[in-house]
Specification:
Order of helices and strands: HHH
Largest sheet: none
Distance between the termini: 49 Å
InterPro entries: YjiS-like (IPR009506)
Number of strands: 0
Strand content: under 5%
Low-confidence stretches: none
Shape: elongated
Helix content: 55-70%
Mean pLDDT: 85
Radius of gyration: 21 Å
Number of helices: 3
Keywords: Membrane, Transmembrane, Transmembrane helix
Structural class: mainly alpha
């Protein structure tokens, strides 16, 4: 049976921290963009359409932020 190693070697003092920072930054930008796209899509709906899905204009910000 063949085996392989799934761990990565340490990249020095700042390598691991730097990659963690970059990954966190990319995730934050992706989350911000998802919220922006959601907010824009919901804002384009009419009041009637929002009511059909059980929302009102005041709910848009909470929905896009993921708090509701």
């Amino acid at each position: 049976m063949a085996t392989f190693e799934t761990t990565r070697p340490a990249l020095g003092l700042f390598g691991g921290r730097l990659s963690t920072l970059v990954v966190s930054l990319v995730a934050a930008v992706a989350a911000w963009n998802d919220a922006r796209v959601t907010r824009n899509a919901l804002s384009k709906l009419s009041d009637r359409e929002l009511d059909d899905i059980g929302l009102c204009r005041g709910d848009i910000e909470a929905i896009s932020a993921g708090t509701r």
